[in-house]
Each structure stands twice: as C-alpha cells, then as structure tokens.
Amino acid sequence: MSENQYVVFKLGREEYGIDIMNVREIVQYQESVKIPNAPKFVEGIINFRGNVIPIVCLKKRFGMEGRTADANTRIIVINLNEKQIGFLVDEASQTVRLDDSNIDPTPDIIAGIDRRYITGVGKLDERLIILIDLERVLTEEEKEKIDNLQV
Questions:
Q1: How many CA within 13 A on the CB side of residue 15?
Q2: Which of 87, 91, 126, 127 could form a disulfide with 10 if both were Cys (CB 3.0 to 4.6 A apart)?
C-alpha cells in the first residue's frame, strides 16, 4: 500500500484535497487584475514572484456560490502543463497523509461538483476529504484560452 500527501483546502464547509506534488506554493489572497473576455471563473491575473499568472476561482468553476475574500482566503499556486496557475480557495488548512486503503472511489452523488474532477474520497478520522485532480478541472480548450489571455 502506498501513502500520498495532500494539501487540504475548503470551499464553503466542504474539505477538498489535492496531491501535494502538484502544489508549488500557497500564498495569501491578493487582489487580481481583471481581464476582459476571460472565462467567468477566471478572477484575473497577479504578479507572482515576477511571473504573471492567472487566478481561477474554484468555487465559480464548480458552480458554487462565491464569497468575499477574507483573512483565510488563499491562492494555491500549481504547475499545470509547465505553466503556473493560481486556484482561489476559501481556506488552505493543512497537509495530510492518506494511505490508499483510506481512499474510496468517487460516490455517484457529490453535491455541487462535477464527478469528473474527483479522484476519490479520503477518510481521515471522522473527516471526509474530496480528492480532486486539478489537471481535470480545466478542459484543454479552457487551458488554451487562459494561456492566451492578454492584459
């Protein structure tokens, strides 16, 4: 059995996890610059360590109601197809280790999020952590649109 490490974050009251190997950094929320003609779920762009990166609001992407950013709001910066993208989340709380035996397949019904993004559900004590694959969150067409955003 293998064990993987996940970054746990919240969207609303639900906890989600992504493989830590995909995460470059977690940073405090900063206001982004809006881009005309960007997809609705793209908040804008920020300057991240000298690089301009797009910010995707995961709540909007998943069809959930957004919320105003506060002191807990974080941007999870990941490397996706050799480019950096920031994912806006309500809170990034911790990293956890999950053994494969503690991960169940995706149930038929998960409220508020398309099953194609989900790789499984992790069980940790009394908590359920919905594991998502950030590479599946954006279609190839959407990735291309984001790559071509002009300031």
A1: 16
A2: 91
